[in-house]
Amino acid sequence: MTTLPEAPIELTIERLGQLGEGVAQWEGRTVFVPGAFPGDTVRVHLEAQGKVLRGLLGQVLTDGAERVSSRCVYSDACGGCDWLELAVTAQRSAKQEIVLSTLEHLGRLKRSAFTVRPLMVAPRDWGYRRRAVLHGAGKGALGYFGRRTHERIPVDVCPALTPVLTALPGKLAPLLKPLAKDTEEVLLLAEGDKAAFAVNLSGPVTARHLEAAAAAVRALRLEGAVLVPKEGSARLIGRPVLRSLSPLRPEVPVYLRPDAFAQAHAEANVGLVTAALYELGAKERDSVLELYSGNGNFTFPLAGTAGSVLGVESSPVGVELAQRSAREGGVANVRFIQGDARKVCDGLVAEGRSFDLCLADPPRAGAPGLAKWMRALNVRRVVYVACDPASLARDAAGLVEAGYKPVALQVVDMFPQTHHVEAVMSFEREA
């Protein structure tokens, strides 16, 4: 094995990797350099992390053509937005290429085998995030994890967040000091000009926690808060459930809660839902199985064109919010099952059920076993919404092996200034 040099070395960055890092070559080995971009000449200290060789960035000697100045004072250390110094046009082309190359290399799916739609651009590339996850950062501060570390970076103001949330980290932190030693995460959520927060606790909810959270809600004129204990039921303070409107179906309310998942970019989410519905192509007689249905983000637009929708979601909060939307919106052709997707699908197979279409929006880990369920449930068309290219590639390969042909790919730039991306991919069962 080659001995790594103790002194820093110079590298030229050739491209971007799947996780957004710069990629260079050193003595025939691939080196990943966080914070570096194509065309940069950099000085790095080489470090082996398992089988992966990383370059710890010491200095950018020469800027690549696509490097720009950061708009955030925390960008040198904060891991929240890793592409702040990469031009937006370069970000967009890189995201499309990252998804396609991951499908090729991990999923063995040639890009010529399906339609590649033009990238769907986010309406806003700054000040767009309506949700955030903060961590205790010492001395009562709140902040984000550092780049590729679990070091906590204190943040008072975050310009990536929507205006109502931008200054909330610094304002909220001193008010939540009584909870600090028991806090695992603080979750922020906004809808329009309304905001709420949740605190994930390491133990039970106490009177001291309730008092401090209620005082913070009053002092900052927030809608409410949720205290989530390690075990047992969450405690709600004020009105932390924020009302929104269903994408493409504004007559149906959609409810958000800070301790439940919601897409971070509200405007780009409309494009994401539109793309998923277009690829699925549901008609009025079609039965749709929706896996990982959350609070109904895709469910109610789907129900507007399909005959019926069965949503499967593991989060009790997500199902509760979705059922409320269905009642208040008068949507009668949807039903929700709260449970693990794997167990629910096994149960549906055992019952002999079948569905015409399936839309799956799994978490970052993907949906292992999806292909098996699709065949057993006689699904003819599958639309997979992915937030991780590697999981998409793995599950896409499984679908192809099970007899589903890839049809089209739509990449959506949901997370400007970061390497994160959403992708919508459709598959049709071959005869």
TrEMBL record:
Keyword Methyltransferase: yes
The keyword Electron transport is assigned to this record: no
Record InterPro entries: MeTrfase_TrmA_AS (IPR030390), MeTrfase_TrmA_CS (IPR030391), NA-bd_OB-fold (IPR012340), SAM-dependent_MTases_sf (IPR029063), TRAM_dom (IPR002792), U5_MeTrfase_fam (IPR010280)
Keywords: 4Fe-4S, Iron, Iron-sulfur, Metal-binding, Methyltransferase, S-adenosyl-L-methionine, Transferase
PROSITE patterns for the chain: SAM_MT_RNA_M5U (PS51687), TRAM (PS50926), TRMA_1 (PS01230), TRMA_2 (PS01231)
TRAM domain: residues covered: 1-62
Pfam families to which the protein is assigned, alphabetical: TRAM, tRNA_U5-meth_tr
Active site: C387 (nucleophile), C387
Domain of life of the organism encoding this protein: Bacteria
Gene3D superfamilies on file: 2.40.50.1070, Nucleic acid-binding proteins, Vaccinia Virus protein VP39
Chain positions recorded as S-adenosyl-L-methionine binding sites: Q263, Y292, E313, D361
Recorded family membership: Belongs to the class I-like SAM-binding methyltransferase superfamily. RNA M5U methyltransferase family.
Protein's name in the database: 23S rRNA (Uracil(1939)-C(5))-methyltransferase RlmD
Organism: Corallococcus caeni
Record gene name: rlmD
